[in-house]
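User: Hi! I'm working on a homework problem where we have to compare a predicted structure to a textbook description. Could you give me the structure for the chain below?
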Amino acid sequence: MPEIKTDPPRLDVRGLTKRFGDFTAVDDLTFSVPVGGSLGVVGESGSGKTTTARVITGLDAPTSGTLTVDGQPRTAPRGRARRLARARQVQIVFQDPLQSLDPRLSAREALGETLRLHYPGVDRPARISELLDQVQLSSRAADAKPRNLSGGQRQRVAIARALAVRPKILVLDEAVAALDVSIQAQILNLLADIREQSAITYLFITHDLGVVRSVTDDLIVMQHGRIVESGATDTVLSRPSTPYTQLLLASIPGPGWDPRRTVEAHRQA
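Assistant: Happy to help. Predicted structure tokens:
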């Protein structure tokens, strides 16, 4: 019988640990995401979500454990060309694009700078127009500085800049948390369309369980740096198996919601 070969996961994380001195921020994480998949990472503040995102993107080095992209180890490379190639694998979109966008550059100029750095020979105007269309940003907005854009427009610029290098993985760290609900819906729909068109893989870091329900296939729940529950998103949210996940779900405001009862439950958890 011939051997059946399976493709490696787009992202594979094994035993990932990150310590800052005596404090363990991320403790022995193991998970994987397939090509074109979308994994949600949820938990309250201090659970280790953002540290996990920073290690995966290469902004922080892991204390121990392994990360691979398409079966290839994601290690710190030497040399400018290799560092740029590694950066193109994984890009990140933060909660507040004003902290990551250059206030002196318009959206069009920011995209041009990114393309110049990574693809010196590319037809930049054509690629910039393609990216602006992809994130549905008007020409007028594309020529404005970040301070003159709305929150939703700035986030579209940040997404376009991340997509400019054609990443295999896009990490979204609370990427819609600062937006109004209606704008959140627009950005989430945009992200869903981009994934459908390009088979990009998402790692969606958030505290908002309503967001992960709409944009992720699978879900891991973190508490104190560890994974306490994982599975298909619909299963975890409809039939949570751990008290902590049940508490997170109980913390979502709704009819009959009692904030005092939720606070007391958090104290006892």
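For your comparison, note the following. The chain is about 40% helix and 25% strand. The longest strand covers residues 23-33. Good luck with the assignment!
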